[in-house]
Amino acid sequence: MRDDAIAVYYATRDGQARRIAEHICRRLSAGGMLPAPRNLLPALPPPAELAQARLIVLVAAVRYGRHLPEADRFLSVYSALPTPPPLALASVNLSARKPGKTTSSGNPYLRKTIARHRLAPAAAVAFAGRLDYRLYNWRDRLIIRFIMLLTGGPTDAATSIEYTSWSAVDEFADRIAALRRRD
Ligand SMILES: Cc1cc2nc3c(=O)[nH]c(=O)nc-3n(C[C@H](O)[C@H](O)[C@H](O)COP(=O)(O)O)c2cc1C
C-alpha cells in the first residue's frame, strides 16, 4: 500500500484530536510521505475521496456524550459506501483517563458509535484527552467541573492537564502500520 493511500481525518474543538492525528501521521510517515491530517470542518471530504483510500483513520473528540457532529456525519458517509475501506477509529475523551475505558468494549462513546453506524473497525481505541478549564466558557467550565467532581477528577478552575498517553498513540500508529503492511 502506498503511504498516501492512508487518509487521516480529525474532528476537534480544542485541538487535542488534531495533535493526536498529527502525531499518528508523523509516526506513520517516518521514512515516507503521508499527507497532513484533514479537519472535517468546514466541509466533509466527498465520498469518492473516501472510497479511493486504502485505509481510513478517524480521530474524533467527544463533547457532551457524543462524538462531534462532523465525525458522526463522516461515519454516515463512510458506512454508506458500497465497499468501505478498512477503518482505524480513535475517540478522544476524558472518560478514557480511567483504567478499562480505552477499548471499544470499555469506552461508552466508542462502543455506541460503532453500534450506531454498524462499523467493523480494523482498529479502535479511546485516548484520554486534555482538560483545560481556561479554554472553556463559564457554562462548559461549570458542567465539566461538576462531572469531574462526580468522577474524582480535578475541579480547580486553573487546571490544565494533558492526559493523553503518547505511547498509546504510538502503539495505535504501529497497528495502523501493520495493517498497511498486511495489504
Ligand atoms: C464542552 C465539553 C464537553 C465534553 N464532554 C465530554 C464527555 O461527555 N465525555 C468525556 O469523556 N469527555 C468530555 N469532554 C472532554 C473532551 O473530550 C476532551 O477535552 C478532549 O481532549 C477534547 O478534544 P479536542 O481538544 O480535540 O476538542 C468534554 C469537553 C468539553 C470542553
The percentage helix is 25-40%
How would you sum up the global shape?
Answer: globular
Oligomeric state of this protein: single chain
Unique ligands: flavin mononucleotide
Number of strands: 8
- Provide the gyration radius in Å: 16 Å
Biggest β-sheet description: 6 strands, mixed
Secondary structure elements and their pairing?
Layout: E1 6-11, H1 16-28, E2 38-39, H2 47-52, E3 55-63, E4 66-67, H3 69-79, E5 87-93, H4 108-116, E6 123-128, E7 130-132, H5 138-151, E8 160-162, H6 166-182
Bound molecules: flavin mononucleotide (FMN).
General description of the model:
Helix 1 crosses helix 6 (166-182). The protein is built from six helices and eight strands, in the order E-H-E-H-E-E-H-E-H-E-E-H-E-H. It has helices at residues 16-28, 47-52, 69-79, 108-116, 138-151, 166-182; strands spanning 6-11, 38-39, 55-63, 66-67, 87-93, 123-128, 130-132, 160-162. It is of the alpha/beta class and 183 residues long. Strands 1, 2, 3, 4, 5 and 6 form a six-stranded mixed beta sheet that branches. The chain has a two-stranded antiparallel sheet with strand order 7-8. The N and C termini lie close together (6 Å). Flavin mononucleotide is lined by residues 12-17, 61-65, 92-95, 129-131, 136, 140, 144.
